[in-house]
């Protein structure tokens, strides 16, 4: 996987556009001046967690005796499920954002940004090419930066694009993610057959 494809995949998995409504409804009761600070704090916490999983996730996998093909197949299935949710969103999706007060770590940093799928993705990158950790760290940093910028300007983007525009972009991203998920699944299955 190249730096470009790793970055795009991480952005798609983090799903900043899809998270805009969830972030805004979670922070609905928070003073608008504090919203951006909270978003910056939460995205930074998510970045730290994902960096830890990038550099130390392979030791967790080794300790649990999980092979690379198994991780690739599982990652492909998880990405496929995320893509399906992006293309066909559920009506009850807003339920996870019904929190009162100022959130800390949950639900914004984890699981909306650094969810199981994003953690799996960074571990998969590290496991595929452990000698290329700097490239994966750069990909993670770029994806995190783009996600943070989009979420910091969430109010503005919702006004510009509207709910329909955000939904259309998220569904398009879901279509792209579907093909990447299938490719990841097939690569893992091919590795399993050759092993």
UniProtKB/TrEMBL annotation:
Belongs to the UPF0056 (MarC) family. Its main location: membrane. It is found in: Cell membrane. The chain crosses the membrane at residues 6-27, 39-61, 73-92, 104-124, 136-157, 169-189. InterPro entries: Multi_antbiot-R_MarC. GO terms for cellular component: plasma membrane. This is UPF0056 membrane protein. It comes from Aquicella siphonis. The keyword Cytoplasm does not apply. It is a multi-pass membrane protein. Keywords: Cell membrane, Membrane, Transmembrane, Transmembrane helix. It comes from the Bacteria.
């Amino acid at each position: 996987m190249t730096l470009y494809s790793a970055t795009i995949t991480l952005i798609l998995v983090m799903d900043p556009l899809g998270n805009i409504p969830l972030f805004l409804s979670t922070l609905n009761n928070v003073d608008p001046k504090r919203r951006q600070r909270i978003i910056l704090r939460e995205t930074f916490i998510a970045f730290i967690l994902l960096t830890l999983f990038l550099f130390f996730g392979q030791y967790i996998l080794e300790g649990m005796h999980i092979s690379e093909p198994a991780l690739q197949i599982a990652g492909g299935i998880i990405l496929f499920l995320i893509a399906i949710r992006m293309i066909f969103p559920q009506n009850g999706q807003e339920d996870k954002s019904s929190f009162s007060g100022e959130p800390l770590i949950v639900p914004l940093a984890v699981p909306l940004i650094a969810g199981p799928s994003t953690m799996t993705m960074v571990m998969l990158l590290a496991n595929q090419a452990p000698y290329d950790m700097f490239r994966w760290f750069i990909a993670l940093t770029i994806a995190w930066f783009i996600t943070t910028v989009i979420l910091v300007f969430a109010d503005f983007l919702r006004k510009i694009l509207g709910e329909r525009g955000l939904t259309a972009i998220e569904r398009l991203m879901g279509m792209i993610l579907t093909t990447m998920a299938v490719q990841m699944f097939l690569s893992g299955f091919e590795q399993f057959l050759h092993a």
